[in-house]
């Protein structure tokens, strides 16, 4: 199958990173603050190191556009943090040196091009710090189109609402080959599909836990206008794409926050989730109904807001947005 090698490397690396994140989350990590005032932890750095190492080894010519960099970790003030990151990485790569770890993290400072990977080593760091949902999101983009996506959701359960079923889910997709769900520890991935329009129980919508990352009042009004009367399920990170792809929600709305109208989305916050939803039969656009631009830069400067749906309700949502 096309992209089989890329898929296998991405899956193995994401599962290794998930192991590191689960261990760190159980130990209740401290958060550091980045220049943009968002949090980062030793698990964000460790996850990026492990995944960049694996991609660099298998595909040495591929650029990686990742969220984190090692600038702060190279500073004297963060010497202890660096020791902790390296310790965590060595649990999975015993011969990893401290310089190796820094260099692997910085391998994620690539730029977009004809073929590149985009990585969010922990998407939803705020959820991770609350002991709730987060995702490890890795996607391959070629000629402006996402070809492979792997989304690791270590805290998500097969039944998202009740918490029943296996905890720890890997969502996978290769362009044109459908989307699959592999519970952690299982050998068998199963195909997933978005919700049917007549499945009333799952015709709900998902949105961020963080009110400041969206516009909850407008999101509720738009969902209602599109025929979704029940309250939202609030989930951190790209796990929301997993909810739509696995037919447990019909809609994910992320409208610009009135407090930060100039905010533009990063490609690593959406690419892996987007291909999983599209390959499960759904649709992903910006709030104007336009395709998201994956290859123009790390920030999607020409897109605003994100609408993710099962497909049939998409046009009603865009027209309810009325722009
Ligand atoms: N002001 C903001 N508006 C929208 N998204 C944001 C903002 N600040 C950070 N984010 C990103 O929002 C996402 C969290 O997802 P959600 O809000 O859906 O749970 C993360 O990708 C987070 O980055 P990070 O990867 O650093 O956590
Ligand atoms: Mg993110
Ligand atoms: Mg992140
Ligand atoms: Mg972050």
UniProtKB/TrEMBL annotation:
Coiled-coil stretches noted in the UniProt entry, renumbered to this chain: none
Statement: the UniProt record of this protein carries the keyword RNA-binding: no
Keywords assigned by UniProt, alphabetized: Hydrolase, Magnesium, Metal-binding
Gene Ontology biological process: phosphatidylinositol phosphate biosynthetic process; sulfate assimilation
UniProt EC number: 3.1.3.7
Entry GO MF terms: 3'(2'),5'-bisphosphate nucleotidase activity; inositol monophosphate phosphatase activity; metal ion binding
Stated family: Belongs to the inositol monophosphatase superfamily.
Pfam annotation, one family: Inositol_P
Species of provenance: Rubidibacter lacunae KORDI 51-2
Listed cofactors: Mg(2+)
Catalytic activity field: a myo-inositol phosphate + H2O = myo-inositol + phosphate; adenosine 2',5'-bisphosphate + H2O = AMP + phosphate; 3'-phosphoadenylyl sulfate + H2O = adenosine 5'-phosphosulfate + phosphate; adenosine 3',5'-bisphosphate + H2O = AMP + phosphate
UniProt protein name: 3'(2'),5'-bisphosphate nucleotidase, HAL2 family
Superkingdom of origin: Bacteria
Ligand binding (Mg(2+)): 67, 120, 122-123, 269
PANTHER family reported for this sequence: 3'(2'),5'-BISPHOSPHATE NUCLEOTIDASE (PTHR43200:SF6), PHOSPHATASE (PTHR43200)
